[in-house]
Amino acid sequence: MEYDYLKIEGKSAIVTGGGRGIGRATALALGRFGVKVMVCDIRDDWGESAMQEIRQAGGTAEYCHCDVSDTAQVKTLVNNVMKAFGTVDILVNNAGIGSVSLPFEEITDEDWDRMLKVDLTAPFYLCREVIPYMKKKEYGKIINISSGSGIIGCEFCTHYASAKAGLIGFTQSIAKELGEYHINVNVIAVPTTQTPMLKETDFDVFVEDELRDIPWGRIGVPEDIADMVLYLSSDASEYVTGQVLAPNGGRRTPV
């Protein structure tokens, strides 16, 4: 007898930065389990490709262009979700930017402001828009994608680590406020993961050094994070909120 452990079929989700990397793997995984997925990205070719892949596999998906650091575009995105699916059950705040290695004193005001705007303020914008709908239903799943750097810091990417640390504090704070509405809010401290952004930031040159500290013997792949999102999106995680989950092959503990 087959048992539906996840119980997410028919739910609706927003996945930001859903066109590639962790976001794409997450959107595809949710679609595979019957979730109606709104993919959003700033690259239409990536986002539309992810949407089509979900549809070709028999799932339900739409695409919306969205710069998540723009409040007007975020409002449009959520309005489109409500028009398309009638509800929003799951929000995955995945969209983010990284940086090439940069000494602290070389970080400009513009570098700092841009990093915090995309990696910390944008999830605030998304949550602010969807939470009223979730409160009405007294149900919702919010999964924020942070980084291990937000826990232990990261040399030569101070602005990135600061934004990701802020996202952890933001997650734990709103989880306390939203518990009475049965809205689960959790954060994933993503480890070094084999994504396009890893190469773009030149961080992949440190992968060999990291491997020595990973008991599991490999760095992460997007599907590792997508699997964690599936769990946090599901009824199986009903009593899990305000938590930092760190799927990192045993490299470090989440606290």
| Low-confidence parts | none
Q: Which strand order spans the largest sheet, edge to edge or round the barrel?
A: 3-2-1-4-5-6-7
Q: What's the CATH H-level superfamily name?
A: NAD(P)-binding Rossmann-like Domain
CATH-derived topology: Rossmann fold
Spatial extent as radius of gyration? 17 Å
Number of domains: 1
CATH architecture: 3-Layer(aba) Sandwich
N to C succession of SSEs: EHEHEHEHEHHEHHHE
Secondary-structure-derived class: alpha/beta
- At the first level of CATH, the class is Alpha Beta
Percent helix = 40-55%
Distance between the termini: 39 Å
- Strand element count: 7
State the helix count: 9
Q: Give the DSSP E fraction (strand runs of 2 or more residues).
A: 5-15%
What is the average per-residue confidence, as pLDDT, rounded to a whole number?
A: 90
Morphology = globular
Largest sheet at a glance?
7 strands, parallel
